[in-house]
Design goal:
By secondary structure, the chain is α/β, with parallel strands linked by helices. The chain is built from 9 helices and 20 strands. The protein has 2 domains: about 180 residues, 3-Layer(bba) Sandwich (FAD/NAD(P)-binding domain), CATH 3.50.50.60; about 170 residues, Polyamine Oxidase, Chain A, domain 2 (Alpha-Beta Complex). Strand 11 and strand 12 form a beta hairpin. The protein has a 7-stranded mixed beta sheet with strand order 7-6-15-16-17-14-18, covered by helices on one side. It has a 6-stranded mixed beta sheet with strand order 9-2-1-13-20-19, covered by helices on one side. Helix content is about 25%, strand content about 30%. Helix 1 packs parallel to helix 3 and helix 1 packs parallel to helix 9. It binds flavin-adenine dinucleotide. The site of flavin-adenine dinucleotide has 38 residues, from helix 1, strand 2, strand 14, strand 18 and helix 9. Flavin-adenine dinucleotide binds next to helix 1, strand 2, strand 14, strand 18 and helix 9.
């Protein structure tokens, strides 16, 4: 069978779903991508904020950058670089020790390559979702996924009950589409009942995750006593990393913007008190203040930020990889691929690798029809 008429739905526009959708389209397969959020990116999103006096600020509040080791992922990233939506972030990275209050191991500029999307981290997913052959629909979360046995197609229903069509192949690129954990967050059942794919269900039953709070800060003046633009903290219960977002290529330098990441332990402690439901502004403000105070206690900052806001990532990082060899879960009979960082490794490279693997499974299943 030719790929004409073979329609695939990709759920999720994070980097695994976006890379999968664009690879399918390049192979002549018609793809519709559904994303519940207003825009693309998932955990590679960019946050747009407005200050009280109307200044617009952008923050990469998910993954701050990524590195690549695998040759097949690297060649794709180099292609994105040549197309202008990826660039290398050539800054020195270091470690700050809370016990000695000193920086250790400041590396030389450009020692290991770190990539960012330009002009924002979400630019990569945005470009992939806009590729020829990918029809992207944002703000359309999938609420129910059914397998129509007689027609051998997947039928999709939106969270508001709307019929979103039937598809011969399906890619689910978020663990929340199958994991019962989503019920704790939204009160709804996961869209895909894992009983439909009994041979995969064992791997999907337990998908442990690590949470993270990020705090976005904007300063009127550069924090000139910090010798690096990105660093990890040692010996802090609260902070794990800090990044100067405005030092990345193609970002506005009208203000100096920093992002702080909490330790997973700190985030777990807050979540133990609040649960996973939407957080109140009071709690988010308290978190922003605590992380800022810890940052200030380093003595590295003397000025106050003119903007601060916290964001919770309830499942920032998967704590296990469920398909490190196969790179995605695959049901050949139902033409269902489940992909994402939780299959390979808890980072952007793992997510790309998994999305590519899912696309190849579907492509091969079309050519064998
Ligand atoms: C704070 C933080 C720091 C990080 N730091 C790094 C780092 O330094 N380096 C690195 O490489 N990685 C880092 N990561 C990890 C990296 O961001 C992820 O590994 C990667 O972006 C995961 O991509 P994904 O496509 O697997 O999942 P996601 O990006 O989570 O995409 C899944 C998408 O599916 C959508 N979706 C879910 N359910 C539905 C539904 N029912 N219907 C429609 N759409 C749905 C979601 O809205 C989401 O957009 C970090 C992540 C966070 C949060």
């Amino acid at each position: 069978m030719s790929s004409t008429g073979f329609k695939v739905a990709v759920l999720g526009s994070g980097i695994s779903g976006a890379a999968c959708a664009s690879t399918l389209a390049r192979n002549g397969i018609s793809v519709t991508l559904f994303e519940s959020a207003r825009g693309p990116g998932g955990r590679m999103s960019q946050r747009r904020e407005k200050t009280e006096d109307g200044k617009e600020l952008h923050f990469d509040h998910g993954a701050p950058f990524f590195s690549v080791g695998k040759s097949e992922v690297l060649s794709l990233v180099q292609e994105w670089e040549s197309r202008g939506f990826v660039a290398e972030w050539k800054e020195k990275f270091g470690f700050f020790d809370f016990q000695t209050h000193k920086f250790n191991n400041i590396e030389q500029e450009g020692l290991s390559k770190r990539y960012v999307g330009v002009p924002g981290m979400n630019s990569i997913c945005k470009a992939l979702c806009n590729e020829n052959g990918v029809e992207s629909k944002f703000g359309l979360g999938i609420g129910r996924i059914e397998w129509l046995h007689d027609d051998k197609v997947w039928s999709l229903t939106g969270v508001d009950g709307q019929n979103l069509g039937q598809f011969k192949g399906l890619v689910a690129s978020d663990k929340n589409i199958v994991s019962p954990r989503i019920t704790e967050v939204t009160g709804r059942l996961p869209p895909l009942d894992i009983k439909l794919v009994p041979e995969l269900s064992e791997k999907l039953l337990n998908l442990p995750v690590k949470p993270c709070f990020v705090v976005m800060l904007a300063f009127a003046e550069p924090l000139s006593s910090i010798p690096v633009k990105a660093f990890s903290f040692e010996n802090s219960q609260v902070l794990s990393r800090a990044y100067c977002d405005s030092s990345k290529p193609s970002r506005s330098t009208a203000s100096e913007r920093w992002i702080l990441h909490s330790t997973p332990e700190y985030a777990e402690e807050i979540i133990a008190q609040t649960g996973l439901k939407k957080l109140s502004d009071i709690t988010l403000n308290k978190v922003a203040e605590q992380l800022l105070q810890e940052f200030q206690s380093t003595g590295l900052i003397t000025s106050q930020p003119f903007f601060k806001k916290a964001h919770r990532w309830g499942s920032a990082f998967p704590a296990a990889s469920i398909a490190p060899e196969e790179k995605c879960l695959w049901d050949r009979n139902k033409r269902l691929a489940i992909c994402g960082d939780f299959c390979v490794s808890p980072n952007v490279e793992g997510a790309i690798d998994s999305g590519l693997a899912a696309a190849l499974k579907l492509r091969d299943s079309v050519s064998s029809l």
